[in-house]
Amino acid sequence: MLCYALFGKAIHGFAVKASYAAMLPVEKALMDMYSRIDALDDTCQVFKNMCQKDSVSWNVILAGFARAKLYMEAMGMLRLMHFSTGTKVKLTSVTMAIILPVCAKLKFLENGRCLHAYIIKRGIESETLVGNALVSMYAKCSRVINDALSMFDMISRKDVISWNSIISGVSDNGFFAEALVLFYHMVSAGFMPNYATIISILPICSLVENGWFCGKEIHGYALRSKLDEEISVINALLIHYLKVGDIIGAEYIFQKMQIRDLVTWNTLISGYAMNGWFSEAVNLFHNLLKSDIKPDSVTLISILPCCAQLLDFDEGKKIHDYILLSPSLGLETSVGNALVSFYGKCKKLDEAAHCFQGIHKKDLVSWNAMLTALADNEQWEKLIKVLNQMSCSQIQPDSITITTILQACTYLGIIKVREAHGYSFRAGLISHPNVLHAILNAYAKCRVINCSLSTLENTAGKITLIDNAMLLGSLKHGSLKDAEKIFDLMQERDLTTWNSMLQVYTQHDFTERAFELFRVLQTEGTRPDTVSIMSILTACSRVAFVRLVKQCHGHTIRASLGNMGLGFDKHLGVALLDAYSKCGSIKDAGKQFQIIPNKDLIAFSAMIQAYAVHGMAEEALQTFSEMLETCIKPDHVILTSILSACSHAGMVDQGWKYFKSIKKVYGIEPAMEHYSCMVDLLSRRGQLKEAYDFIKDMPCEANASIWGSLLGSCKIHGEVEIGRLAADHLFGVEGSNIGNYVVMSNIYAANGRWDGVEQVRRMMKGKDLKKPAGCSWIEVQRTNHVFVATDLSHPQRPLIYSILRSLDWHLKYPLNQRT
């Protein structure tokens, strides 16, 4: 730009020397040149020295001010043009095309209307250039229905810009379906959408019903029209696919792109983050660093939350070091805020505080990030101190601040809760959903739910919200009966309400209630989301209800085609895998695993665990090898599953190999679960002495699970002495667990040690231990039947017992002995 400016000044100098500078065409050309290279002072100087000013020269100076975003100066220059020149200079259609967008930027609707009146008086209203400017101005001033559409209809010769103006105006005002209708009218009228049209229409597709299909159609049009060669169009397509959850489609576009700019990289990184693909986002960031493009603040504020979600402190620290090497990035407030949040999530409060102090221009987000970091780590005194500093900074709290403060107030007592409640009321934040939930939750924790309800019932228009907040408060504090009462009395229920009840029924093993609630949810016209499906899948797993799992799976496939995005949710895919496995359908679990895109640690862990539980050790080890080939580092959970697989298959040598690799190869300190698997492995193979010695050599005290595993194997192999040693430890750490006494008693009985049996029974009687009633259930004709020992309440009990007696008789007596 500097080179062009010097060259332009040289030409200007030549024109002055040659006496051409005073000629009107030369003056206008000089003004236009200076305006285009952003030399507005030089433009004004040439304009000031002009002896004769015509409409073109005025338009050039107006365009210069508009281009420099000096909108008020442009409006002042328009008045000067109109009033100081009499009738010699008219406001032309070009003038209107320049000044009407200025009115739109300033939201000067009345000025725009005055100009519209002048346009009508001049008779240029139907001109395409002027009409397009008026449509855009009215749309940006939120006058779409009455003015923008009417003005659009009045344009006699519409062009592509006319259609682009009305489509973007309608969509910007929230009329998304109408914008799509206009787009189809445009195509039907024979107009060829250009790259600006595509960029305007694609963001709408992710916001409307069946938008995924609309996006596909527009993508196809872009390919046929060669518009996909425009990088802005490709970036818009990338954003669309990410917003509808089609990560695979977005990755395909990204891989096919021959030219990528920073917007492209940032879009995919933020898209990964938005969809929970945090590891993929970090990997893509590494690829960006290898390219010729340098990350900016947008990149960093997208990638740091991914590191926080992964609790990957090392990766986040490397990014922080990169920021320190780029001082311009470190000075940006948004980057500092992201660092504070990252360190807070990783429980590194000293580093978070250091980054917070280093932010030169702290904004509300900065204070909220620091307060949230302290609240998440329960540093209440430090939180109050930072809050006092915030009040001195003259920055006003928002809803996020209040909800964070209320977390602290819950621990500081009811008085502080009331103070926060009062402030939120005075600040006008009481009607915000998150604030309302936080206040009710705080009162609930302080055991004054009735007080909170009577106070908040005065909040107009928030009945469902209050009910939901009360419902959540009751659920969080164990009052299921109160929650059910609130739920039954609610006049309106949203998806949050249904999901809350589904989750609590699932967590408390009320599976029948969960199934019934899920059925009612759908009959009342509410469409389940990912949370609903994952809750009901958990319930299905508890009772091995594979038919309902398949129905949920079918729903996710249909929902993905209906633009709900469920079919592309990786976490939901893993939940389906887990549900199939726990229902005994390992084949379906394997199929689900195969279709999960970009498998991460969680997906591999679920599949390996499924194979391990089903005794398919070879498949588990093969899947583990596939995971290692993708350079995913195993964690202690996967290694536990691998050892469990070896245990179920009796693969002692393989088990020892993997156990030794935990620390040597993967750098993980063996956990109690790993030791427990090894004890189980040795015990299953009858190597009880080796298992006992292994326990004694452990660097930490063995827990009840390990001793219980050894005791169970002693029962299988009839080993009394080692069983007695294991039982003695269990009686010490789990004195009230009747199962341990029963197993030891059975070991004594199997070996004819009746004195031992009597001793164990005396211990049980002394501690008043009673064996709980056995329980089983079965699904017959879409109904679950539950049977509990000594329970005689089943309506078909006589028929069931009759059949049982018949089966028992047939088992006891061979055919030749029956009479």
Automatic annotation (TrEMBL):
One of its GO terms (biological process) is RNA modification. It holds the Pfam family PPR_2. One of its GO terms (molecular function) is mRNA binding. This is Pentatricopeptide repeat-containing protein. PPR repeats lie at residues 159-193, 261-295, 363-397, 494-528, 600-634. It comes from Platanthera zijinensis. Belongs to the PPR family. PCMP-E subfamily. It comes from the Eukaryota. InterPro entries: E_motif, PPR_At4g14850-like_plant, PPR_rpt, TPR-like_helical_dom_sf. PROSITE patterns: PPR (PS51375). The keyword Transport does not apply. Keywords: Repeat.
